[in-house]
Amino acid sequence: MQTDTPAARARSLTKTYGRSSAEVHALRDVTLDIRRGEFTAIMGPSGSGKSTLMHIMAGLDAPTSGEAWLGAIEIGRMPDAQLTLVRRRRVGFVFQSFNLVPTLDVRGNLLLPFELDGRRPDIREQKFIDELIVSLGLSDRLTHRPHELSGGQQQRVAIARALATRPEVVFADEPTGNLDSKTGRDVLALLRDAATRHGQTIVMVTHDPVAASHADRVVVLGDGRIVADRPRSTAEEISAFMLSLEVTS
Ligand SMILES: Nc1ncnc2c1ncn2[C@@H]1O[C@H](COP(=O)(O)OP(=O)(O)OP(=O)(O)O)[C@@H](O)[C@H]1O
User: Fold this and answer.
1) pTM of the model
2) Which atom of ligand 1 is nearest to the CA of 54?
3) Is 45 left (phi over 0), alpha (psi -120 to 50) or beta?
4) Which of 96, 134, 202, 243 sits most deeply, having the most CB atoms within 10 A of its CB?
């Protein structure tokens, strides 16, 4: 894999739901490169198309037209069975609601992506997982089930699980939405660290300017289009900028 190939690409993506008078244009001609090793935040008002874009780029949904690429693979209209494999091997997800398996303990949840792929971590992967467990402060929780953990601990397990296979991209949908601000900051620091220390590519949808200020880049959607693409900014700069978009729209 060439390292200069973007980790993910959207090419003239459109997504239309419904028909005729009930038609909703969730995405309108969106083109975006997600650079390798970068932490990108996607912002925008409710209904602007953030989740739709992320789901299509992650292979969870198909576009109406346009292309979605993960590395050198076009996933936009790939058959389901093949897409499932690509998702398992190349994509990590972190959801607002953690999405851990309640019947599995922390160790079982962390190993789930490997189990689903019908294999065990190799020595390098196991070493990386062991490092993640220590750095996320989960060492004494490995035999606990999700309901025995705090929200912040559950989200840390979800992040470790998403990172464990070293995927091409980790997509995070409002990962701090259900956390108090201190725990949320810890989770953001983990995502930041994953990009800085491990060269992990991260795409995070958020409404929160403080969360977005941890990212290297802030892409703003409005009514299904990209309306701004900014380098790393402070929370104050992002708040002011989002406000100016609302005023001028
Ligand atoms: N399955 C669906 N059927 C019909 N319309 C949909 C569907 N999913 C999304 N939409 C519409 O597409 C538009 C974009 O939705 P999307 O969820 O991507 O926005 P969002 O920016 O993520 O919003 P939020 O911040 O509220 O989560 C909205 O108008 C929404 O109502």
Assistant:
1) 0.91
2) 18
3) beta
4) 202
